[in-house]
Amino acid sequence: MSTATLTDEAARPAAPPPAPPEAGHPPLEGAARAFGTIALSAAVFMNVLDSSIANVSIPTIAGDLGVSTTQGTWVITSFAVANAITVPLTGWLTQRFGQVRLFVLATLLFVLTSWLCGFAWSFESLVFFRVLQGAVAGPMIPLSQSLMLASYPRAKAGMALALWSMTILVGPIAGPLLGGWISDNYAWSWIFYINVPIGLLAAWGSWQVYRARESKRIHLPIDRMGLFLLVVWVGALQVMLDKGKDLDWFASPLICILAVVSVITLVYFIIWELTAAHPVVDLSLFKERNFTSGTVALSIAYGLFFGTVVLLPLWLQNTMGYTATWAGVAAAPVGILAIIMSPIAGKLLARHDPRIIATFAFLVFSLISWMRAQYNTDVDLFGVMLPTFIQGAAMATFFIPLTMISLAGLRPDRIPAAAGLTNFVRLVCGAFGTSITTTVWDDRAILHHARLTEVARPGEPAFDHVMSGLQNLGIDPLHGAAMLDRVINQQAYTMSATDFFWASAIIFLALIGFIWLARPKTANHGGGAAAAAAH
After folding, report:
1. Closest residue by Cα to residue 139 from 17, 282, 4
2. In the prediction, which pLDDT does 114 show?
3. Alpha carbons 11 and 305: distance in angstroms, whole number
4. Which pLDDT belongs to residue 416?
5. Angle of CA points 312, 132, 144, to nearest 5°
6. Helix ranges, 120-194 (H)
7. Residue 427 and residue 10: Cα distance in Å, rounded?
């Protein structure tokens, strides 16, 4: 979901950072700045790691808790949906509690919910605790960036963002490796327990450094009705997508009810938010051409990307026989080029049209999707790792240019709301993309299996030849048929995965045209705000 998770959080940039602490606070110096940087980076790393570490562990978790791997992806989507819903609330929560208090509280609650996830006694309890974990994780990344920027002089803001970004990009490398190793050698619960010491140290260090630099607290009204409608329509749609396949979609009364609830609450949500005095999300932003083009392109692409991040480990482990450790090894290279190319991309964006940089990213995404569409059951580890390695170049040139396009031409006072809405839509699409991808993967595999078995029957020369060979080896017809069915199943799921990659390659190319519908005024317009929002 890369690679995870992210990969994602290279795959999951956060909401816009709230305003920095009080203007009267000077930048930190010496040991205090170094210690503050380490504390904030540790909290961010824990957050990002928790996203990417879960991807390769899904088959292990699903098997241990007695559910299918498709159901197991709820561990990812439940976190993503809850996280997306809390993103628009970050600004209001910051003004209500203060930056430092909110960051430390969110970090401590993240530690608590991580421990609860590891302690989960059933799949239902794990999903519930992941929802809580995603909800409290929402403010952590934007606040960490805001505090980091306030710790450095304005002249060194680029350095601060570079240090912060490195933490984000290391997660996709460490997460799959660590998650696979833990799943294969220890209990899966330890992928959550390891957050406890890191989070406690990060919260303690952050409080020691930043408690005297608290931001001003203001009591502002919150759009309770808008928030309620948001939770209901997003939650109902997500459950419908996750449970649809198991319940035979609209043949199930529950799916029909969820669909009706989702549509009705979405309509009411749109009407309410367009007329509310203090909307939780400012939907009027979609009237802006640049904002709509950038946000739609970013969100659809992110949904495809995150779907791939989840699909690859599942395919490698369930179909190709990889252990969780080796699935993690195959996913780990995604962050290498991302780290190397991020500074280069930043310099290019200062001089070139962001549409050109985003076009490059989508071309690379399309290329790696095409490379993966060539997979077959004989693909080796290098063949799996190479597209993942190249994908890092797309990640480094993907988020910031599209966010710059989204924010181009907006008044400064609208940028925080616009960046928050962009990230909300992106995160929701990431969660939906995971559910849709796994459902399509299973459905296409059933279709391919049915087609392959049409020729795998007595009287077909190929079938008779294989069965005859197995009988010559002393294998009775019943066991021979079972062996052949496993081979057909492996082929069916591989063919289904390549179908998804072919479709992804085409969609990424189509999105390039959508990017060029935007008309940003200059190459670097809104660069500072966009960089902040994209990270």
Report:
1. 17
2. 94
3. 8
4. 66
5. 80
6. 123-137, 140-151, 157-185, 190-193
7. 13
